[in-house]
Amino acid sequence: MKYRFMTLLSLFVLAMAAMAQGKAKYVFYFIGDGMGVNQVNATETYLGALEGRIGIKEMCFPSFPFVALANTQSATNGVTDSAAGGTALATGHKTKNGALGVLKDQTTAVTSLADWAREGGAAVGITTSVSIDHATPSSFYAHVGNRGESYKIGQQLVNSGNDFYGASDFVKPNNPDGGPDLYKQAEEKGFTIARGYKDYQKKAKKADRMILFQSEEASKKDRGSIPYALDRSKNDLTLTDITRAAVNFLTKKQGQKDGFFLMVEGGKIDWACHANDLCFIPEVLDLDNAVKVAYEFYQQHPDETLIVVTADHETGGLTLGRGPYELHLEVVGNQRMTIGKLGEELHKLHEKHGDKYNWDIVKAFLTENFGFWGAVKLKDDQTKRLEKAFENIMAGKGQDSKSLYQKDDELATTVRKIQAECAMAGWQSGGHSNGYVPCFAIGAGAENFTGRIDNTEIPKRIAKAAGWQIK
Predict the structure, then answer these.
(1) What CATH architecture does domain 8-319+430-466 belong to?
(2) Rounded distance, CA 57 to CA 54, Å?
(3) End-to-end alpha-carbon separation of the chain, Å?
(4) pTM listed for this prediction
(5) Where does CATH 3.40.720.10 sit in the chain?
C-alpha cells in the first residue's frame, strides 16, 4: 500500500467526497499516548533518512486529508496527565489530573463516547497496547477520582456494557476481599477471555462478548503492557493483532448492532518518551500499522467509515535538531532493543562471562545492537563516557536513573544520551509538555477536524459525525 504525497487538487477532491458522505456508521478512534507533532514528524523524517535523503516519507495516518491541532491542558493544570487527557478525549469534559471519567470534583461521573455509541445502537470496542485498566482506555468506561484504583477500574470494566476489550492484561486482577478475581467476574458477566491472537480465533465465533489479553506467559514477565515493537518476539501479541481482532469481532456483531465504535491506544509511545528513548519511533510506526487495518476497512466502506487519529498530550518535550543545523535520525535504524532491555541484556552478559566480563565485550555488544563505532560514529569523549560508566558499574559506584516506567543503570543511560546526541534529537524532560497534539481524520464527517481545536471538541465532533446523542 502506497501513501503518496497529496497534491492540492487531490486534497480538494477528497474534501468534496468527504462532505458528500453521510453518517459515520463505523468509527475508529486512535490515540497515540504522548504523541505530539514532533513524534509524528520524527518518525516520517526517520523513514526518509533510511532512504538516504533529507525530508519525510509519509506514513498512512499523517496523510489523511483533514488535520487539526488540539490544546491539551487539563481543568487544573497547564500540563495534563494521561487520565485527564484521556477523559477529555473520551467524554468532552476537562478534569483534574489523575481523575478518570469524572469532573474535577473527582466525584461527578460523566458519560463517554463509548456510552453514546452503545446507546446509539453501535457495538463498542476499547483496546490498548498497555493494560486495559490504564488511564486512556479506562477513560472510556471508568469513573474514579484516582487513576491508581486499578482493581476498582477493572470491576467497572466487568460491569460495563461494552462488547470487546483488548490489551496486555489487568494490572490487579485479584480480589482484595478474597472473592472471585476479575477474570472470573468477567466470565460471569458473559465475557469470553482469549489469551493471544490464535486463542482469539478459536473462541471468537461462539463468544458474545470478548476480552483479548496476551498469553499468561507474557503476563508473568510484564502484565502492564505488551512488549515494545523493538523487543517483540514472534509469538507476542501486537497492537495490529488486537486491532484486527476487534474489527473482526465488532463486525460479527452486525446482526445485533448498528455499526461500531473502536478506540485503539498506542500506549507505549508515551512510555518510550518518558524514558527519553528514541524507540518511540518504532512505536509510532506500530500505531500506523494498526491504523492501516482501519484504513483497509475504510477502503471497503468509504461512505460510512470515519477514522480519527490524535493524542492525549506530548511527552518529553522532544526537539528535532540540536547545535548544528543537522538531523540524523537514521541512527535509530541501528537500535536493536530498547534502553530498558539493554540494561537487562548487559546484566545477562555479565552473568554469562563472569570474571571475564570486560569493556571489549560490552563494546562489541553495543556495536552489534546500537551501531556504535560502526554505522554510528562516536567522538572520543563519547567513547570515554561509555567506558567510564562501565567502570563505575563494575566498581559498584554506578548511578541509576529512573523514569516513570523504568529504571536504567548508568551505562544504559549513557547509551541513551549519546544515541540522542548522534541523532541530533533533544529532550526537555521525562514528563509531559503542553505542546499541541495533531488530529488527523478521513472519511464520513472528517471535514469537522480542521484548524485549532480543544481536545474536548474531538469526541463531540465524532459523535456528531456518527449521529450519536451526547449526554
Answers:
(1) 3-Layer(aba) Sandwich (3.40)
(2) 10
(3) 39
(4) 0.94
(5) 8-319+430-466
